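[Q] Does anyone have a clean structure-token version of this?
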Amino acid sequence: MFDFIKSLFKGNGDVAKLVKEGAVIVDVRTKGEYQAGHIEGSRNIPLDNIKNEAAVVKNLNKPVVTVCRSGNRSGMAKSILAAAGIKAYNGRAWTNLKRQIQ
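[A] Here you go.
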């Protein structure tokens, strides 16, 4: 329970560190939003498809950082992936994470 509470308050700096150490970024925005701009090297799996793609994500064998426009959809995706046994983190807004990892 304590780890869950800690994860709620984990800063984006920690997430940026995970990305720099090799975590996979999964952008859960729509295809159109992703095409309009995204973090280089990220994977686009829209939130509507994340549950169906959980096995593919799990096979990457890496921690996953989910991102979206504001952090709401990425939070939902993080929960879905975590329920599937994937070590997932909410990276919140993709633009903020992009600035932190450049």
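[Q] Thanks! Anything notable?
[A] Residues 4-11 have pLDDT under 50 and may be disordered.
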